[in-house]
Amino acid sequence: MGNNQENGDADAGPFQVFVDDNFHFMDEDERYKAGEFATYEEALAKAQRIVDEELANFKKPGMTADALYKLYAFAGEDPFILPASKSEPFSSSNYARAQSHLLCSG
Q1: CA 72, 75, 81, 87 torsion: positive or negative?
Q2: Are the C-beta atoms of residues 18 and 80 closer than 8 Å to each other?
Q3: What pLDDT, in 10s, does the model give residues 27-83?
Q4: What is the 8-class DSSP label of residue 81?
Q5: DSSP-derived secondary structure letter, 22
Q6: CB burial class (10 A; 0-12, 13-18, 19+) of residue 69?
Q7: Which of 21, 37, 81, 88 is the most buried (most CB within 10 A)?
Q8: How many CB atoms lie within 10 A of CB 12?
Q9: For residue 33, what is the enclosing H or E element?
Q10: Which residues contact 19 (CB under 8 A, 6 or more apart)?
Q11: Domain residue spans in the chain?
Q12: Rounded CA separation 4/21 (Å)
């Protein structure tokens, strides 16, 4: 999964959240803009919400974290932020993997 982030200046806004579709990997026609935010923190919260909603929609009772993450990686929405933070770039893949473990641990 590529986040398609470019090196940007995390101190300069606005920050835009774009979303690719993992099911249509590398098809920019499937990309959409999810919003524009004054701060990186607001953009990050939006990107995380998108992943959280996808995982919640995919999760089934008894599903393992690995199975949930694989389903997300295959067909989930893949948000990214522009300009990207140089110090803490958002990785939807890493975030989804961690959240899958949290959702499936209980």
Answers
A1: positive
A2: yes
A3: 677 788 999 999 999 999 999 999 999 999 999 999 999 999 999 999 899 999 998
A4: E
A5: G
A6: buried
A7: 81
A8: 9
A9: strand 32-37
A10: 31, 32, 33, 34, 50, 77, 78, 79, 80
A11: 15-104
A12: 12
